[in-house]
Q: What sequence folds into this?
């Protein structure tokens, strides 16, 4: 398991954080990993009496028996659509799209997709992830089953011809009911955080985010169209205009989130419209949609 400590986890005891990030692992496995110093914080082996800080990288190694038990306890990956070329799923919050170090190991949307295909007799391990969602963002995630479909999907994502829409709830309500936002985003990989400015800055990339208000009020519901796909773009861009996503401690209002009892960000990838061409041309114009849980 590998992850980076977020703002809302700053100051938390390591054991409690591991229990939060791996809720299906038995307590004995968590304590055993700490006792054996099989947990590393920023590369250093540590024991249980440690408080973590925002931006620290945590790597934890658990016994195989515990991971097998965890996999059995996890629900199946919800499948939205499947044919001979693609697999489209509704990724749960808290589940990584794939693990960074060993993509086909551990628990992730990718490993669950591979396990599902094996369960129905596909032993080729040809399932490939075409894009990613943040760990705490749920919603539509696309996999392909063959090289031609993968190349068509990757090209479509690269050329922004696949339309991706998200639903979220934010603090307050934007004055304009519909707008296309332009700004610049710079990523700081060391602290796993981005910053947004209205002007070009060294190392920054242009971002374009469209939105329309679905429901007004103190906590508006928005539909967001992602026109460029940068790290944490939606979360950081909406926070930049004064309307952070509810439940997001990294870029949002932590005090408000605690007051509302929100521990997960209210952001979901709810709609995907195909304009891919190539091996996926038969799907062009088709729209797939899921409901968000908030």
A:
């Amino acid at each position: 398991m590998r992850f980076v400590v977020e703002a809302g986890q700053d100051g938390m005891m390591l054991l409690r954080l591991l229990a939060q990030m791996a809720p299906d692992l038995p307590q004995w496995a968590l304590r055993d990993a700490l006792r054996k110093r099989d947990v590393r914080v920023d590369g250093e082996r540590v024991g249980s009496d440690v408080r973590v800080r925002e931006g620290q990288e945590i790597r934890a190694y658990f016994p195989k028996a515990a991971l097998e038990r965890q996999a059995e306890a996890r629900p199946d990956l919800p499948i939205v659509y499947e044919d001979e070329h693609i697999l489209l799923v509704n990724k749960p919050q808290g589940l990584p799209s794939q693990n960074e170090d060993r993509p086909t190991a551990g628990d992730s949307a990718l490993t669950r997709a591979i396990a599902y295909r094996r369960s129905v007799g596909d032993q080729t391990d040809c399932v490939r992830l075409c894009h990613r969602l943040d760990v705490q963002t749920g919603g539509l995630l696309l996999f392909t089953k063959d090289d031609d479909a993968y190349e068509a999907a990757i090209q479509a994502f690269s050329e922004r011809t696949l339309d991706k829409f998200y639903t979220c709830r934010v603090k307050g309500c934007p004055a304009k009911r519909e707008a296309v936002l332009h700004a610049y985003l710079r990523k700081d990989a060391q602290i796993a955080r981005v910053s947004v400015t209205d002007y070009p800055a060294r190392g920054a990339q242009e971002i374009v985010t469209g939105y329309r208000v679905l429901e007004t009020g103190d906590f508006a519901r928005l539909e967001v169209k992602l026109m460029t796909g940068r790290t944490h773009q939606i979360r950081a861009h909406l926070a930049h205009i004064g309307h952070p996503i509810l439940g997001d401690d990294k870029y949002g209002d932590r005090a408000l989130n605690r007051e509302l009892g929100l521990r997960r960000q209210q952001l979901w990838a709810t709609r995907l419209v195909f304009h891919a061409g190539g091996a996926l041309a038969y799907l062009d114009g088709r729209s797939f949609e899921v409901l968000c849980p908030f």
